[in-house]
Design a protein that fits this description.
The chain has 22 helices and 19 strands. By secondary structure, it is α/β, with parallel strands linked by helices. Strand 18, helix 21 and strand 19 form a beta-alpha-beta unit. The longest helix has 18 residues.
């Protein structure tokens, strides 16, 4: 086969392939030419091109999220790799195996005035699972095996029990475009990582049984995670115990009529004199980020005796300042062991209190939302009603993802959102990368600031017609009218909301995206069916829904006030 004449790089690319990296997103450049040549000429690797590095990294992250395998991103030297950083941080906190490969200048030119040259080593130091430098030239077989050993270690860190991004920095000298004909490197065996099955120690058995059996109030809180059928079965079995309450957000992708799905909605219905009855003795947390700020404050103010965090990732993370024990295992492994214990069901009705409150509020609300004035809340309610079965919904951050938590999840739909760092950057790019690898319909529900911020996601020849973008345009950052603080300042409109009058139509025209718009619920309902029909040009479609700027927060207050009064 043909490959770069820099055989250290050719060997590196082959080893990445053996470790599971089969897809790579490349951004054009010069210094990364040997990397691109080796990847593109590799007979079993697939490479695509995305110009904007920030978008490219989020796109690759979305691909990795769907494929559940490492996906690479390759850039030239200099500031290009800094544009990867938002996606690197998101992948770090969302535990996605993104493989960052940055071309670099030879070490002797760093900080000596050479173009496109910065200090690249250890740039991601605080948000990376592993980082190392790759040699472009390998003198002998011993050096190659030494380098391969480091590469395998990197992938074990990034694609092991605790997944996350890894970084390979590759200094490259000129000339950079020469190629050679090469048979291929021998396929070295992949290191087999021996996994030891998780079991409780005798002390843990006694500790867990004693705490559980003596507690009247147990609360299991589920954050962001992939769909998990076994875990759903286990939690359903636990919910039979009336002393157990199970709270899930829609990003947990666990749907059951035995769980409390709309946490903020339910908390709003708990009166001051009921708070103590709803506070848990034992808190068990599983999954990733939790969106609800209300539940965080509620649990931080609770008199919790035990907080058990379950998962390999971030075992020291103490979101509620009550952590007593971390169990570094899969949640399903924990509950498999738990069911073997001598645990007892309690006569307490703690779990029933939570579920009854949830049902009561839902019944009281009825069709209240559609009786309120036209607003973001109404639009989100309508959009969710019309999403086709078995779709994937990607929720943009800030107000959109919070609105979605107020409505019961649809059983056939998978809910995704960039809640690792909860930034507005990259939502469109991530959804587009996921959609590329998905056969299902992917719907991105996003706000205007997030969309315009990531509009280069549409500057992309790899977009697919299974992606639909629903853009809520309320002419600014609506979240700043919802959260406490900004609305009391004179800087609200200019600095926090960043009020604007922009529309997406011309952006869509520039990038050949089918565009339509709506200004009311009636218009939305008229256009939504054709919106989900096949695209004429085999590209995504975008529906822009214009909503009022200034009343959304008042509508949301009316919604929560109604719950409190009810």
């Amino acid at each position: 086969m043909i490959t770069t004449d820099k055989l250290g790089i050719a060997s590196f690319v082959q080893q990445c392939f053996l470790q599971g990296m089969k897809q790579v997103v490349c951004s054009p450049g010069s210094r990364n030419a040997p990397l691109i040549i080796a990847i593109d000429e590799h007979p079993e690797m697939k490479a695509i091109v995305i110009h904007d590095e920030r978008s490219a990294a989020f796109f690759a992250m979305g691909m990795s999220q769907k494929l559940k395998e490492p996906v690479g991103v390759v850039c030239t030297s200099g500031s290009a790799m800094l544009n990867y950083y938002p996606a690197v941080a998101e992948a770090f906190y969302q535990c996605i195996p993104l493989v960052v490969i940055s071309a670099d200048r030879p070490k002797e030119w760093i900080n000596h005035g050479d173009g496109q040259t910065i200090v690249q080593e250890n740039v991601y130091d605080n948000h990376i699972r592993f980082q190392t430098t790759i040699r472009e030239t390998i003198e002998n077989e011993i050096e190659r095996k030494e380098q391969n050993k480091v590469i395998r270690k990197a992938f074990q860190k990034g694609y092991g029990d605790w997944k996350g991004p890894i970084h390979f920095n590759v200094p490259i000298s000129e000339p950079m475009y020469n190629t050679v004909s090469f048979e291929s490197f021998d396929n070295e065996e992949i290191d087999e990582v021996q996994k030891v099955g998780f079991i409780f120690s005798n002390d843990e058995k006694e500790y867990i049984s004693s705490a559980w059996n003596s507690s009247k109030k147990k609360l299991i809180l589920c954050g962001q995670m992939e769909q998990n059928t076994l875990l759903l079965q286990q939690l359903n079995e636990l919910s039979v115990d009336s002393s157990v309450a199970i709270l899930v957000e829609n990003t947990a992708n666990l749907k059951s009529n035995k769980f409390v799905h709309c946490i903020d909605r339910t908390l709003a219905g708990i009166s001051e004199n009921e708070i103590a009855a709803f506070q848990p003795d034992i808190l068990i947390t599983i999954g990733g980020a939790v969106i609800s700020k209300k539940i965080k404050n509620f649990l931080r103010d609770s008199d919790i005796k035990e907080h058990w965090r379950i998962g390999h990732e971030f075992p020291e993370m103490d979101t509620y300042k009550k952590l007593t024990r971390s169990f570094q295992c899969q949640s399903t492994e924990f509950f498999n062991e738990f069911f073997k214990l001598n645990y007892q069901k309690h006569l307490s009705s703690y779990g029933n209190y939570w579920k009854q409150k949830d049902i009561l509020i839902k019944d009281k609300l009825g069709d209240l939302v559609m009786k309120l004035d036209y607003s973001d809340l109404q639009v989100v309610d309508t959009v969710l009603d019309y999403i086709p079965e078995n779709a994937i919904i990607h929720m943009g951050n800030s107000s959109v993802v919070r609105y979605c938590q107020l409505f019961d999840p649809i059983s056939s739909i998978n809910y995704l959102s960039n809640r690792g760092t909860s930034g507005i950057d990259g939502s469109t790019s991530t959804a587009a990368g996921y959609a590329l690898q998905s056969k299902k319909l992917n719907v991105l529900l996003t706000g205007d600031i997030s969309f315009f911020y990531d509009s280069n996601a549409l500057w992309n020849d790899n977009l697919t017609d299974n992606l639909r973008i629903i853009l809520l345009n309320n002419s600014g950052g609506g979240i700043f009218r919802i959260i406490d603080g900004p609305s009391s300042t004179k800087q609200l409109a200019k600095f926090f909301e960043a009020r604007h009058s922009y529309k997406a139509e011309k952006i869509c025209e520039a990038f050949a995206i089918d565009y339509s718009s709506a200004n009311s619920i009636n218009e939305l309902e008229e256009k939504i069916s054709s919106f989900y029909a096949e695209s004429v040009n085999e590209r995504p479609k975008l529906l822009e829904i214009f909503t009022p700027t200034e009343i959304n927060n008042e509508i949301l207050k009316k919604y929560f006030n109604f719950i409190k009064q009810a």
